[in-house]
Amino acid sequence: MEQSVDIRELNERIKNESSFVDLLTIEMNKVIVGQKHLVEGLLIGLLSDGHILLEGVPGLAKTLAINTLATIVDAKFSRIQFTPDLLPADLLGTMIYSQKNEEFIIKKGPIFTNFVLADEINRAPAKVQSALLEAMQERQVTIGETTYKLEEPFLVMATQNPIEQEGTYPLPEAQVDRFMLKIVIDYPQKEEEQMIIRHNLAQSFPKASSILKPDDIIRARKVVKDVYMDEKIEKYIVDIVFATRFPEKYNLEKYKEMISYGCSPRASISLSMAAKAYAFIKRRGYVIPEDVRAVCHDVLRHRIGLSYEAEANNVTSIEVINDILNTVEVP
C-alpha cells in the first residue's frame, strides 16, 4: 500500500516538474511545422543526456530544429559543417603560438558549447568522426597535455543525408552505437507544407522565445531518473534486447541467419532512459510498456547488424524490431 502512495506522490511531483514540456513544445511549434516525432526525439535526447543521429533528405528543417531548441533553452549553439578536408583540430581546437607572450596558448574549437549540430557527419573522414564521438562519450577534450571538461548540458545532433553516397565516409557500426537515438524524418504532409510556405513568405519569420535556462535542463534530468520503472518493465526491456541477439529463443528463428550481431548493453540502458524521458514528457511518474514501445524503433534501429542474407531479402532493422515487439510478451 505504501508503494502506491509513493507512486501517487511521485506522479504529482513529475506532473509539476514537467510543466515546462508543454511550453517548450509550443515554442518549437512556432518555428517548426509538423515534425512532431523530431521534436519529441530532441526532447528525449535532451532529458536523458543522449545524442541524436538524424537521417533525412535535405531541407527538412534539421538545422532549424536544433537551433530553435538552443534558443528556447538559452544555450550556446554551434554548427559544424563536416567536409572531407576537415581536421580534428577544426572541431576540438588547437595550440597556437602567441608571439606577444612567447608561449603556446590554447584556442578552443566549436565543440565547446551546449548544442552541437554536426551537419552531414558522413562527409568527414574517420579521424574527425572519431574525435567527435570520443568527445560525445567522454564529455571531455584533450588539447596538448591539458584535458577540458565540456559544458553541461551537452547535446550532439548529427545529420546524415541518405541520398548521395559518393564522397561519404559511412559511420562505423561500433561508433553509431554512441548515439542514443537515430531518428529518420520524412517529408511533411500537404497542409504542413502549405504552412511552411506561409511562414517563409511572411514579413518576418517566426522566432522562438527563451523560456528556460541550461540549469533547468540539468535539474529536469535528475527528475527524469526518479521516474519509477517496475521490475517487470526492466525485464521487458531486457527481453527485447536479447531477442535481437538470440532470436531463436523468442520464436523468431527466421532472423537467426539474418542478424549478424544484436544490440549491446548500451541499447538496454538507452531504452530504459528514453522510456523514462518519454513518460516524463507525457507527464507521468512511472513507465508503462507503451513508453518502451514508443521509443524502441529510434533506440534500436542503428544497433542491429543485418547480414548479407537480410539485405538480399530486403529485410530492414525496422521489420526486425516490429516482429520482436509483436512476439515478446508484454508485461
Automatic annotation (TrEMBL):
Signal peptide residues on this chain, from the entry's feature table: none
Pfam entry (one): AAA_lid_2
Organism: Plebeiibacterium sediminum
Family membership noted in the UniProt record: Belongs to the MoxR family.
Name listed for the protein in its UniProt record: AAA family ATPase
TM spans (from-to): none
Domain of life from the UniProt record: Bacteria
Keywords in alphabetical order: ATP-binding, Nucleotide-binding
Record GO terms (molecular function): ATP binding; ATP hydrolysis activity
Annotated ATPase AAA-3 domain residues: 51-181
Domain ChlI/MoxR AAA lid residues, every copy: 256-324
Matching InterPro entries: ATPase_AAA-3 (IPR011703), CbbQ/NirQ/NorQ/GpvN (IPR050764), ChlI/MoxR_AAA_lid (IPR041628), P-loop_NTPase (IPR027417)
